[in-house]
């Protein structure tokens, strides 16, 4: 019943309705891949993944929260809030992250998203209480599939996303930063994939995304060396996009919003279409990506923003 209700809610969402119109014009080869981009999960029962069972297990580990604030500017601010444990993810926080992602999938006015940690630190990864209790390979793989599902949906959001790294982003916290389009650090912050020292590999999709961001050779160094990436080193290898001057929590968030603003100026439908197009290119082959780009174009060509821009004189003047 829960899965049927989940499917019903999905089919009534704006994201689903918009994608359904694109599916009508897409070749069969593309349709299967497009379906993955409307909130459906990477893993389901055919992979041995039973979401409701995993949720019941995660509910047993309370603590902290995932807080979402939607600004009138079209920027969402997602805060990992568990400061007594360096914003480590409890089981309940993992569940709340999925809830917030679903909410953001349906936020049609949104253009950008900043994810950060409370109290001037990003996240230390998973709460060790949950890690110890979920100690079997079966439990580990179930949580892995749950978080890969969630972070893949996060990555596919039609919002330009930024990870604001203040303090330390360790383990799973480092993995979360890779699900964003951009990463910003402060001068005193650090990113470190500590998985090797815990006797595991990244389990939330972080290794796959890291290779895409910095390339295979650099990713192997970072992962196998469990390297401490300070802001300068991270900038040099292409892990982050900029270093913010302030280390004050409030001022730093303001700087991150200003940095993001340069990329989200314009109507939401145009910014969101651009993000969708780029996301498709990362997951589809060339021919399919081109067809997807064509279909997304059809949602904005001749629209209000396009007609207004065409009517303006000196359209390229700032």
UniProtKB/TrEMBL annotation:
<keyword id="KW-0456">Lyase</keyword>
<dbReference type="InterPro" id="IPR029045">
    <property type="entry name" value="ClpP/crotonase-like_dom_sf"/>
</dbReference>
<dbReference type="GO" id="GO:0005829">
    <property type="term" value="C:cytosol"/>
</dbReference>
<dbReference type="InterPro" id="IPR001753">
    <property type="entry name" value="Enoyl-CoA_hydra/iso"/>
</dbReference>
<comment type="similarity">
    <text>Belongs to the enoyl-CoA hydratase/isomerase family.</text>
</comment>
<comment type="function">
    <text>Decarboxylates ethylmalonyl-CoA, a potentially toxic metabolite, to form butyryl-CoA, suggesting it might be involved in metabolite proofreading. Acts preferentially on (S)-ethylmalonyl-CoA but also has some activity on the (R)-isomer. Also has methylmalonyl-CoA decarboxylase activity at lower level.</text>
</comment>
<protein>
    <recommendedName>
        <fullName>Ethylmalonyl-CoA decarboxylase</fullName>
        <ecNumber>4.1.1.94</ecNumber>
    </recommendedName>
</protein>
<dbReference type="Pfam" id="PF00378">
    <property type="entry name" value="ECH_1"/>
</dbReference>
<dbReference type="GO" id="GO:0004492">
    <property type="term" value="F:methyl/ethyl malonyl-CoA decarboxylase activity"/>
</dbReference>
<keyword id="KW-0963">Cytoplasm</keyword>
<dbReference type="InterPro" id="IPR018376">
    <property type="entry name" value="Enoyl-CoA_hyd/isom_CS"/>
</dbReference>
């Amino acid at each position: 019943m829960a899965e049927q209700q989940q499917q019903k809610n999905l089919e009534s969402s704006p994201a689903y309705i918009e994608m359904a119109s694109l599916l009508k014009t897409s070749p069969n080869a593309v349709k299967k891949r497009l379906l993955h981009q409307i909130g459906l999960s990477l893993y389901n029962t055919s992979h041995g993944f039973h979401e409701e069972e995993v949720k019941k297990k995660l509910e047993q580990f309370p603590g902290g929260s995932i807080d979402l604030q939607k600004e009138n500017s079209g920027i969402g601010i997602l805060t990992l809030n568990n400061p007594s444990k360096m914003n480590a993810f409890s089981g309940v926080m993992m569940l709340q992250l999925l809830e917030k992602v679903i909410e953001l999938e349906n936020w049609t006015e949104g253009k950008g998203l900043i994810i950060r940690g409370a109290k001037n630190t990003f996240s230390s990864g998973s709460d060790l209480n949950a890690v110890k209790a979920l100690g079997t390979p079966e439990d580990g793989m179930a949580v892995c599939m749950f978080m890969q599902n969630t972070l893949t949906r996060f990555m596919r959001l039609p919002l330009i996303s930024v990870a604001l790294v203040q303090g330390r982003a360790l383990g799973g916290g480092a993995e979360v930063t890779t699900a964003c389009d951009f990463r910003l650090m402060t001068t005193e912050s650090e990113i470190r994939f500590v998985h090797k020292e815990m006797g595991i590999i990244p389990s939330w999709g972080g290794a796959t995304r890291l290779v895409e961001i910095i390339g295979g050779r650099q990713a192997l160094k970072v992962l196998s060396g469990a390297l401490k990436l300070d802001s300068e080193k991270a900038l040099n290898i292409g892990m982050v996009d900029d270093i913010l001057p302030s280390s004050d929590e409030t001022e730093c968030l303001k700087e991150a919003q200003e940095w993001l603003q340069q990329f989200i100026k314009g109507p939401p439908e145009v910014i969101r279409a651009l993000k969708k197009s780029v996301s498709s290119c990362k997951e589809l082959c060339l021919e399919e990506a081109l067809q997807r780009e064509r279909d997304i174009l059809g949602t904005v060509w001749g629209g209000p923003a396009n007609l207004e821009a065409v009517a303006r004189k000196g359209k390229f003047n700032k």
